[in-house]
Design goal:
It is a single chain. It contains 3 helices and 10 strands. By secondary structure, it is an alpha+beta fold. The radius of gyration is 26 Å and the shape is elongated. The two termini are 38 Å apart.
């Protein structure tokens, strides 16, 4: 059933998928139990000639158990989901690992703009590199993305990395990911942002260490004292 999703190439993608499948299996089992009880009652207590419907007050423990027992089960299952979800949330959102590469990403109608700091390692200097729609990263390195929007709300979505983060005008929102497999992956906008929303689709290029170094050297001069990638 995991083929419902795009291939996971993120170091934390398995944790996100695990929460989904936990919720899926719990709700699926509970759905069939509930529907089965409804169908059973519909036949077991259907109208019969010569029988009057009983007036149930619900004031005995046996009758209350039909409400309290399912309630207790739901509370236990909900707490279980919350505990597992909190662990994954803390891992992804709580304390991000130190960055190997930091990139600014600006959403605008209707494309993504990515900015890399140059050899000086600082943003907003003359050696910054700006690229539309293409995000290049090395495999196995921690990538920090500083998200912002020029106009309306967008949503930065990496389906293969299991990362989705709304991008809000006037705010800088941090996100991070670590890709485990070289390849080319899509970066769609997952928030309706105007008539060109469907065409707002960037590309994530995950390179091997050698290929990323080659790509970097093509854009910054040799002999730079500080590179865009640390470590």
């Amino acid at each position: 059933m995991s083929n419902w999703f795009p291939e996971n190439v993120s170091t934390f993608g398995g944790d996100v998928d695990g929460i989904f499948w936990l919720i899926f299996y719990i709700t699926t089992v509970w759905f069939f139990i509930t529907e089965g009880v409804i169908v059973y009652f519909a036949f077991r207590y259907r109208r019969k000639p010569g029988e009057k419907a009983a007036y149930v007050l619900g004031d005995t423990m046996t009758q209350l158990a039909w409400v309290l027992a399912p309630l207790a089960i739901i509370v236990v299952l909900d707490v279980w989901i919350d505990i597992r979800g909190a662990e994954v949330w803390a891992k992804i959102k709580g304390q991000p690992p130190p960055a190997d590469v930091t990139v600014r990403a600006m959403g605008k109608q209707f494309n993504w703009g990515f900015t890399y700091p140059g050899p000086d390692g600082k943003f907003d200097t003359e050696d910054d590199l700006q690229i539309d729609n293409d995000l290049h990263v090395p495999v196995g390195k921690v990538i920090h993305v500083i998200l912002t929007s020029k106009d309306v709300i967008h949503s930065f979505f990496l389906p293969h990395a299991r990362l989705k983060q709304d991008v809000v005008p006037g705010r800088e929102i941090p996100a991070w990911f670590q890709i485990s497999k070289p390849g080319e992956y899509e970066i769609p906008c997952a928030e309706l942002c105007g008539f060109g929303h469907s065409g707002m689709n960037g590309k994530l290029y995950a390179h091997s260490a050698e290929d990323y170094e080659k790509w970097r050297k093509e854009r910054w001069p040799e002999g730079a004292q500080q590179t865009a990638t640390k470590g």
